[in-house]
Write a structure and sequence with these properties.
Elements lengths: L3 H8 L6 E15 H6 L9 H13 L12 H9 L2 H4 L6 H8 L10 H14 L12 H9 L5 E6 L3 H7 L7 E4 L12 E10 L5 H16 L1 H10 L17 H11 L3 E3 L10 H12 L5 H16 L5
Parallel strand pairs: 4-5
Antiparallel strand pairs: 1-2, 1-3, 1-4
Helix pairs in contact: 3-7, 4-13, 10-11, 13-14
Length: about 325
C-alpha cells in the first residue's frame, strides 16, 4: 500500500528504519454496562438493528444514548468512525482503498459496506445525537460519559482508561469496549485496531543511533514499560511475548479478546493520503449536519480520491 515516495522517506539509505510496535488501541463503542442492565439488556448490541432498539429503549427511559463530538471532524468522523465501511470488508478495505487512490469508480452508492455505515448514521447516530452535536468537542462528550450522563461513547476506545480513572474510577468496574455494529450481519462487524509504533532513523552519529535503539527497546519490551502501558494507560502491549498483567483494565482485555477472536482489524486510516484530510473532513461534517444529501456526500467522496489520483492535491 505504500507509495514509492513513502518507501523512500522511510528507508533512509543503507541503515534503513527500525520500526517497533509498542501497544494497541481498540475503538468502537464504550458502554456503561450498569445503564445497559437497567435498560433490560444482558448483552451489548451486536447488530445495527440491536443498536437501534437499544437507543429506543434508552430514549423511552429518558436516558441520552450517546454524546457525539462531531466538531472533531478529524478524530471522530473521518478517522475513528468514518472508515468502518472499509474495515468490515474481508481484506480490511485495502483493495477498495487502492482502487479509490488510483481514481477508479468503486460505485459507492451500491457498495454494501458503505450503505451499512450510512444507514447507521441515518437510522441511529444522527436521530439520537444530542442537540448541538455538530459543535460538540471530544472532551464535552467524554466527560458526559465519564459522569454517566449518557449510556455510550461512540468512536472512542481502550485508551480512555486513565481518563476514566481520573474522572470516575468506579466506572472502570462496569465499562465495556465493544464493536460499533454497523452491519446486521454480526459476523461482519469488526473492532478498529490502531497499532502505535515508534521508530529509529539514520543519524550521522552512531552513538545517537545506538542510544535511540536502546531506549526504543526499553519502552517496547522492558517490564517497567509493560506495566506502565498495560496497567496505567490500559493499552495491550503489541509484543506477544510480554506477560499480560493481572491488573490489566477490563476494556484493554476486551480489545485482546476481540483480536483473539479474529474480530480486530487494523484501522485503514493509516493508509489514507494526508493531503485529502481537510476535504474529507469537510465532506463528513456537511453530511452529518444535513447540509448535503447521501448522494452528494458519496459523489464528493469519490471525487476527492479522483482528484488525488490526478495530482490535484500535489
Amino acid at each position: 500500500m505504500l507509495t514509492a515516495d513513502q518507501i523512500a522517506n522511510g528507508t533512509n539509505g543503507d541503515y534503513g528504519m527500525l520500526v517497533m510496535p509498542v501497544y494497541m488501541e481498540g475503538t468502537g463503542i464504550l458502554y456503561n454496562t450498569r445503564i445497559l442492565e437497567e435498560a433490560g439488556w444482558d448483552h451489548t448490541p451486536q447488530t445495527r438493528d440491536e443498536l437501534l432498539q437499544y437507543c429506543k429503549d434508552l430514549d423511552a427511559k429518558g436516558i441520552q444514548p450517546f454524546m457525539l463530538p462531531w466538531a472533531e471532524v478529524y478524530l471522530n468522523l473521518f478517522n475513528n468512525v468514518g472508515n468502518y465501511w472499509l474495515l468490515n470488508k474481508p481484506d480490511g478495505g485495502k483493495e477498495t482503498l487502492a482502487k479509490l487512490m488510483a481514481g477508479e469508480d468503486v460505485d459507492l452508492a451500491n457498495d454494501p459496506e458503505m450503505t451499512e455505515l450510512l444507514d447507521t448514521y441515518e437510522q441511529i447516530l444522527i436521530p439520537y445525537a444530542q442537540e448541538g452535536a455538530v459543535s460538540a468537542d471530544k472532551w464535552t462528550c467524554r466527560n458526559a460519559f465519564f459522569a454517566e450522563e449518557c449510556a455510550m461513547l461512540v468512536g472512542e476506545g481502550s485508551y480512555e482508561t486513565p481518563n476514566i480513572q481520573n474522572a470516575n474510577p468506579a466506572l472502570l468496574d462496569y465499562v465495556k469496549q465493544d464493536i460499533l455494529p454497523v452491519s446486521n450481519d454480526a459476523a461482519k462487524n469488526k473492532m478498529a485496531i490502531a497499532t502505535i509504533s515508534a521508530s529509529v532513523t539514520k543519524n550521522d552519529d552512531p552513538n545517537k543511533v545506538a542510544c535511540a535503539k536502546d531506549f526504543l527497546s526499553y519502552i517496547v519490551s522492558s517490564d517497567a514499560a509493560r506495566i506502565w502501558h498495560q496497567e496505567t494507560m490500559g493499552s495491550p502491549t503489541s509484543i506477544q511475548g510480554l506477560e499480560v498483567s493481572e491488573a490489566l483494565p477490563s476494556i484493554a482485555k476486551d480489545v485482546i479478546d476481540m483480536c483473539a477472536a479474529g474480530r480486530g482489524v487494523e484501522n485503514i486510516f493509516v493508509y489514507m493520503p494526508s493531503s485529502i484530510y481537510t476535504d474529507m473532513q469537510e465532506n463528513w461534517a456537511k453530511y452529518v449536519a444535513g447540509a448535503q444529501t447521501r448522494e452528494q456526500f458519496l459523489e464528493r467522496y469519490q471525487q476527492i480520491f479522483k482528484d488525488y489520483s490526478e495530482g490535484i492535491y500535489g
